[in-house]
Amino acid sequence: MALHLGATCHAQFPDGQFYVDLRDDSGELGPTPGAVLLRLLRRMGVEPDRIPPTEAGREELYRRLTSGRRAMVVIDHVSSVAQVRHLIPSTPDVFLLVVVSGPPILLESEAVEVLPLARRDSLEMMRKVAGREKVTRAKAQIPHVLAHCNGNAFALKASAVRLLGEDEELEKRFCPWIAGGRTL
């Protein structure tokens, strides 16, 4: 949804849109705040030799780069408030979108609950990703898949990718009910 929002509202953020996904960090608690700032600064195009070695220096550089700019910053798969506290904009034209897929975190923000997609919209999403023909061929299994995905857009996309047969690893990581022996 965050990426869709960025594409839809592209004109509102003429100075850039920056996306950082914390999911792939190998640490149990995810990356440290300094590591998040490092990844964000790299996404913003800062050369490695210009990135300060300290967390405070990185935060200062981030603030200078966003001052007076209209930009969108998306931090996905956040696991703690510490990871994003230093990214809270000091300017009204920087839009910070923090995506938390686990328990909510306490942040000076407005929580936006993302409701599950309706069955009709879930089916339409699968058709857009996998193609109408492939979804039609899997017609008998589609109700089972829709029930398991329960309106979760990410799970639906992963299931649709399964129909395409393009990425079995994605299926194993995010759709274990399918990888566990049931097929579309």
The proportion of residues forming helix, as a percent range, comes to: 40-55%
Percent strand: 5-15%
Strand tally is 3
Number of domains: 2
Give the overall average pLDDT. Answer: 80
Question: Which residue ranges are poorly predicted, with pLDDT under 50 across at least 5 consecutive positions?
Answer: 166-184
Structural class: mainly alpha
Query: Total helix count?
Result: 10
Q: Strand arrangement, largest sheet?
A: 1-2-3
Order of helix and strand elements from N to C terminus: HEHHEHEHHHHHH
Multimer state: single chain
In brief:
The chain has 10 helices and 3 strands; from the N terminus they run αβααβαβαααααα. It has 184 residues and is mainly alpha-helical.
Your description of this structure?
There is one protein chain. The protein has 184 residues and is mostly helical. The chain has two domains: 2-98, no CATH class; 119-179, no CATH class. It contains ten helices and three strands, in the order αβααβαβαααααα. The protein has helices at residues 2-8, 33-43, 55-66, 82-85, 119-130, 132-137, 142-149, 153-164, 168-174, 176-179; strands at 17-21, 71-76, 94-98. It has a three-stranded parallel beta sheet, sandwiched between helices. Helix 4 (82-85) links the parallel strand 2 (71-76) and strand 3 (94-98). Helix 2 packs parallel to helix 3, helix 5 (119-130) runs parallel beside helix 8 (153-164) and helix 8 (153-164) runs antiparallel to helix 9 (168-174). The protein is elongated, with a radius of gyration of 19 Å. The relative contact order is 0.11.
